[in-house]
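Sequence, please.
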């Protein structure tokens, strides 16, 4: 009798628990993903609105007679445009892109357009992937995006090398939106690994800004390349939060009311520890910039705030149930809100009237803080037992993975090479510490004998 009486009680507890979970899930907003991150500064955020306009320029047939330019124009001088490639030029192996020599900002920019829903070749690139299909540099990447990036690099390698050598003080920037963001991120990764193809370009000259990024690399790579790759996400954008495999993106696009909700529920049920320890799971790459412009239970938009971090856990893991999940993915809205955020940052700087010397000191401090945050993220990845993650050397000896680890090695060889490199690094650090302690103790003994003599 007591057992029968207890069944309704257990059912009530179970229903209450489910209701509480569903309520918390519905209350989860995009602001929760970045609420603990720091605020971005005008100096680090400055390139993003400009690069968004460069990406928009790829959609134009003739930049001398533009049809869709945003307020203020694209900011591109047609005479500085080196080349533009269309679908006819790429034969569907990569999205259209432009190469622009930006003398005003000492930058060589390769901008890639986003997904074209009317092009089967773009679908083929995005759907050419299965979990664990392609491994490179000790981590997993999206196979189709990597192949597209390889095609672009092979096609433009000579002209990029010529520009990099001709303008040694210019940075090399890869940028793209949506599908193009994944291609740009893969380009940056491949160029860093094979920098000899572009005249041994220094890693510090290479940058990538992935706007509304696709999840294209495993967590260890996403953190390791955070000093090169930056991702920009507007509020509730669904793409950086859509779990792999990426076929679910199209299910979400064409049946949002049901399947997007089901994806959200399923992702929420998976523990974060299990997701982090899955070496094949792909993530949005690099350092993240999150533009927040709405708050829950508040009508209208607020002045946009940009938060930034190199997170390891809580890296846009869950889809946000929002009617703006797809509109926040549009490059037009991202450019508009990024420019608004930039204007607010600049206005605050003018109010503060920061002197030029102090501004330079702030830039140096910002670079130092980014470096420390980057190293802390690497250490955090090791603490959380992220597969193939390693901590940076205290002496800066093994900051970069050996160049020989690439996609031509098998997954077993890559795993062995990664663990072997970590063991060598640990032994090397221990040897350095012993030698250092020995030198210090010998030096102190010599000083004491001289003093006694």
């Amino acid at each position: 009798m007591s057992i029968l009486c207890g069944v309704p009680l257990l059912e009530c507890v179970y229903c209450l628990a489910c209701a509480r979970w569903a309520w918390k899930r519905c209350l989860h907003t995009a602001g929760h993903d970045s609420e603990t991150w720091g605020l971005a500064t005008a100096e680090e955020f400055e390139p993003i609105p400009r690069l968004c306009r460069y990406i928009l320029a790829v959609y134009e047939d003739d930049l001398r007679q533009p049809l869709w330019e945003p307020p203020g124009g694209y900011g591109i001088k047609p005479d500085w445009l080196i080349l533009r490639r269309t679908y006819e030029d790429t034969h569907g192996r990569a999205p259209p892109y432009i190469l622009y020599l930006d003398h005003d900002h000492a930058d060589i920019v390769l901008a890639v357009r986003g997904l074209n829903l009317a092009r089967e070749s773009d679908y083929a690139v995005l759907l050419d992937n299965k979990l664990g299909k392609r491994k490179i540099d000790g981590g997993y990447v999206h196979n189709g995006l990597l192949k597209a990036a390889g095609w672009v690099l092979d096609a433009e390698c000579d002209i990029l090398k010529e520009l990099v050598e001709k303008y040694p003080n210019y940075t090399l920037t890869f940028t793209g939106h949506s599908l193009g963001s994944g291609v740009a991120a893969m380009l940056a990764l491949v160029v860093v690994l094979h920098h000899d193809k572009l005249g041994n370009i220094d890693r510090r000259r290479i940058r990538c800004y992935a706007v509304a990024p696709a999840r294209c690399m495993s967590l260890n790579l996403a953190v390791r390349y955070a000093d090169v790759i930056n991702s920009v996400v507007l509020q509730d954008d669904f793409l950086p939060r859509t779990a792999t495999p990426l076929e679910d993106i199209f299910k979400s696009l064409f049946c949002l009311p049901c399947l997007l909700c089901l994806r959200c529920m399923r992702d929420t049920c998976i523990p974060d520890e299990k997701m982090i320890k899955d070496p094949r799971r792909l993530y949005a790459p690099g350092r993240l910039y999150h533009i927040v412009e709405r708050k829950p239970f508040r009508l209208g938009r607020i002045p946009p705030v940009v938060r930034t971090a190199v997170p390891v856990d809580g890296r846009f893991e869950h889809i946000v149930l929002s009617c703006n999940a797809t509109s926040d993915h549009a490059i037009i809205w991202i450019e508009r809100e990024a420019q608004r955020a930039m204007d607010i940052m600049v206005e605050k700087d003018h109010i503060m009237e920061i002197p030029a010397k102090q501004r330079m000191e702030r830039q140096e401090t910002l670079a130092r803080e980014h470096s420390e945050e980057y190293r802390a993220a690497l250490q955090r990845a090791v603490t959380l037992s992220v597969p193939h993650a390693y901590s940076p050397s205290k002496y800066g000896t093994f900051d970069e993975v050996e160049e020989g680890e690439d996609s031509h090695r098998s997954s077993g060889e890559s795993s062995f090479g990664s663990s072997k490199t970590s063991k060598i690094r640990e032994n090397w650090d221990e040897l350095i510490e012993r030698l250092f302690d020995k030198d210090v103790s010998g030096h102190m003994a010599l000083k004491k004998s001289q003093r006694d003599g």
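The mean pLDDT is 79.
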